[in-house]
């Protein structure tokens, strides 16, 4: 996880005690710092962080990547083509849906729960809702917080969308799934940028598959490939007008179609991303690294 410097202690310990050292890479550094707006590329801070990151990654005997596209970053950007890189998905964070599931007022409800940041396109989805003002049967629900939350809420007021865009205050993570059980679809957005971060498989995508709902996604790269294989997603562009059309298409699905799509997502999760399957992969890596 971030920041990468937190890994450095493990590298020092491994070297001192002659132990194998494995890094499970869920974020790319220094790229994650750039995409978060903390540093500018080609600045002195970037160059220093690049050197530090490369040194830390180099200290590992093996690097596990949570998205296949990360491999290119290690070879092309960090210039570590000789480093052994293995794809092992991030362990999925899936909590069971509590019995007190949220009951919505409208027939169709798109739910987003998570970070409201620079890459999540939430403002684009709010803008899209302005095209849907005439629909009295739809609401977009936001559960979470983040750097863009204030801007999102200001935009809702500016566009007069308080009846269609509903913000739910933060709740404990164990309670978040109460919003999923009766959702028409779960939103999985990730902005398309030049950064390799935009090609990742977000943990939100994996957990959304597990809940067996239709997924509405604005995503490319590895994440889109997973959803296409699962077969239970509708895709939207990043432009508000295109998003609005995809939401209309979502609301046009029959109940049977939604159930079938949700079942496909759940089945794909069980077959490929179940927690025990990921743990088995990690154990295999640890055993092989120990032998080496």
Which regions are unreliable across 5 or more consecutive residues at pLDDT < 50?
none
Structural Rg: 20 Å
CATH topology of the largest domain: Rossmann fold
State the separation between the terminal residues, measured CA to CA.
26 Å
Number of helices: 11
Oligomer: single chain
Anisotropy-based shape: globular
Provide a descriptive summary of the structure in words.
With 292 residues, the protein is of the alpha/beta class. 42% of the residues lie in helices and 15% in strands. The chain contains eleven helices and nine strands. The strands form two sheets. Strands 6-5-4-7-8-9 form a six-stranded parallel beta sheet, with helices on both faces. Strands 1-2-3 form a three-stranded parallel beta sheet, covered by helices on one side. Helix 5 (122-129) runs parallel beside helix 6 (149-158), helix 5 packs across helix 9 and helix 7 crosses helix 10. The mean pLDDT is 92.
Which descriptors apply to this entry?
single chain, 9 strands, alpha/beta, Rossmann fold, 42% helix, 6-stranded parallel beta sheet, 15% strand, globular, 11 helices, 2 domains, 3-stranded parallel beta sheet
Question: What is the strand and helix layout of this fold?
Answer:
Layout: H1 8-17, E1 22-25, H2 31-35, H3 44-58, E2 62-65, H4 70-77, E3 85-87, E4 108-115, H5 122-129, E5 138-145, H6 149-158, E6 165-168, E7 185-189, H7 203-210, E8 214-218, H8 221-230, E9 233-235, H9 240-252, H10 255-272, H11 275-291
Parallel strand pairs: 1-2, 2-3, 4-5, 4-7, 5-6, 7-8, 8-9
Helix pairs in contact: 5-6, 5-9, 7-10
């Amino acid at each position: 996880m971030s920041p990468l410097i937190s890994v450095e202690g493990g590298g020092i310990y491994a070297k001192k005690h002659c132990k194998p050292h494995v890094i499970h890479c869920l974020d790319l550094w220094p790229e994650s710092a750039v995409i978060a707006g903390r540093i500018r590329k080609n600045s002195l801070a970037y160059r220093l962080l690049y050197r530090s990151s490369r040194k830390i990654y180099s200290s590992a005997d093996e690097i596990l990547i949570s998205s296949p596209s990360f491999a290119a970053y290690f070879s092309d950007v960090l210039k570590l083509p000789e480093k052994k890189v293995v794809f092992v998905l991030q362990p999925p964070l899936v909590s069971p849906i509590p019995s007190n599931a949220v009951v919505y007022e409208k027939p169709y409800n798109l739910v987003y729960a998570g970070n409201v940041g620079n890459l999540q396109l939430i403002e684009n989805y709010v803008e899209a809702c302005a095209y849907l003002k005439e629909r009295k049967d739809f609401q977009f629900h936001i559960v979470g917080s983040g750097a863009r939350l204030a801007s999102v809420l200001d935009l809702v007021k500016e566009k007069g969308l308080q009846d269609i865009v509903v913000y739910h205050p933060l709740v404990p993570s164990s309670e978040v799934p109460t919003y999923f059980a009766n959702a028409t679809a779960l939103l999985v957005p990730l902005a398309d940028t030049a950064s390799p971060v935009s090609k990742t498989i977000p943990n939100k995508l994996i957990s959304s598959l597990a809940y067996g709902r239709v997924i509405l996604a604005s995503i490319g790269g590895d994440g889109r490939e997973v959803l296409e294989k699962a077969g239970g997603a509708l895709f939207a562009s990043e432009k508000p007008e295109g998003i609005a059309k995809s939401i209309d298409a979502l609301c046009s699905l029959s109940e049977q179609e939604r159930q079938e799509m949700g079942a496909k997502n759940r089945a794909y999760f069980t077959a490929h991303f179940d927690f025990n399957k990921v743990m088995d992969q990690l154990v295999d890596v640890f055993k092989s690294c120990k032998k080496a």
